[in-house]
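Researcher: I'd like a candidate sequence for this fold, 114 residues long. If you have to choose between options at a position, lean toward the conservative one.
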């Protein structure tokens, strides 16, 4: 069963929630964003984002403005205390994880080390 905590160990910003809602709406899918961490990338670990069909058993689910962020237990251990944001700049637009557990990251912001 999914866990939803009022003071969640990870947050989804309103900007990220709005972007997920827009993407899900265009694709006719549920507004559920899954954040996962895989080994690899230029700094050791890399973030992976994707729309999910449902919240799975063991997931932490965080709701923001009608959008749900889901994170599995292993990923939560690596991103606890962080947040998922959507940032637009001259260099482009992307989801970013602000991760207080990352010792270092790469220039593109998609990978990190602990």
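Model: Candidate sequence:
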């Amino acid at each position: 069963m999914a866990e939803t905590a009022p003071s969640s160990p990870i947050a989804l910003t309103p900007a990220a929630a709005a972007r997920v809602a827009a993407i899900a709406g265009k694709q006719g899918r549920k507004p559920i964003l899954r954040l996962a961490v895989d080994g690899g990338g230029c700094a050791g670990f890399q973030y992976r984002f994707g729309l999910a069909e449902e919240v799975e058993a063991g997931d932490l689910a965080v709701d923001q403005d009608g959008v749900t962020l889901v994170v599995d237990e292993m990923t939560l251990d690596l991103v606890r205390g962080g947040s998922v944001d959507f940032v637009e700049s001259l260099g482009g637009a992307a989801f970013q994880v602000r991760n207080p557990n990352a010792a270092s990251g790469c220039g593109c912001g998609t990978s990190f080390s602990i």
